[in-house]
């Protein structure tokens, strides 16, 4: 979801991550030696806005969620060189928003001390 793409007075959001810990990659000898780990995630957002706030913000550029919650899913690999992760995500709905990306790649960096 793009920042500030949707607005709401009341909302609920769900952010999940499922770490497999190498269950799939450990069956492939080359990937087992690399120590890569796989993960899946699913994010959802649903909310509503009062009519007073809709009227107040009529000149603002944001979308309201209708009866269907926003949803996106992703698959990723982590533990690359023990610090890097890469994740491919895609939107599952609200694809008609012109400025919203339909899919993409996130790169992450994890530092532990």
Instruction: Determine the fraction of residues in helical runs and give it as a percent range.
Output: 10-25%
Largest sheet: 5 strands, antiparallel
Q: What is the residue-mean pLDDT, rounded to a whole number?
A: 90
Distance between the termini: 31 Å
Strand order of the largest sheet: 1-2-3-4-5
Order of helices and strands: EHEHEEE
What is the number of helical segments per DSSP (H or I, 4+ residues)?
2
- Count of the domains: 1
Number of strands: 5
- Low-confidence residue ranges: none
Classify the beta-strand content into a percent band: 35-45%
Shape: elongated
Structural class: mainly beta
Radius of gyration: 18 Å
Overview in brief:
The chain is mostly beta strands and 113 residues long.
Please give a structural write-up:
By secondary structure, the chain is mostly beta strands. It has one domain (10-109). The protein is 11% helix and 42% strand. The chain has two helices and five strands, in the order E-H-E-H-E-E-E. The protein has helices at 29-34, 51-56, and strands at 10-19, 37-48, 70-80, 84-91, 103-109. Strand 3 and strand 4 (84-91) form a beta hairpin. The radius of gyration is 18 Å and the shape is elongated. The model has no long low-confidence stretch (mean pLDDT 90).
């Amino acid at each position: 979801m793009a920042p500030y793409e949707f607005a709401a007075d009341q909302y609920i959001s769900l952010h999940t991550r499922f770490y497999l810990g190498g269950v799939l990659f450990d069956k492939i000898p080359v990937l087992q030696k690399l120590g890569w780990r796989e993960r899946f995630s699913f994010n959802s957002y649903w909310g509503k806005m009062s009519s007073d706030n809709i009227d107040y913000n009529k000149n603002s550029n944001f979308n309201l969620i209708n009866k269907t919650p926003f949803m996106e899913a992703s698959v990723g690999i982590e533990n690359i060189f023990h610090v890097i992760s890469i994740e491919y995500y895609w939107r599952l709905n609200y694809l008609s928003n012109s400025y919203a990306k339909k899919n993409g790649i996130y790169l992450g960096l994890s530092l532990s001390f």
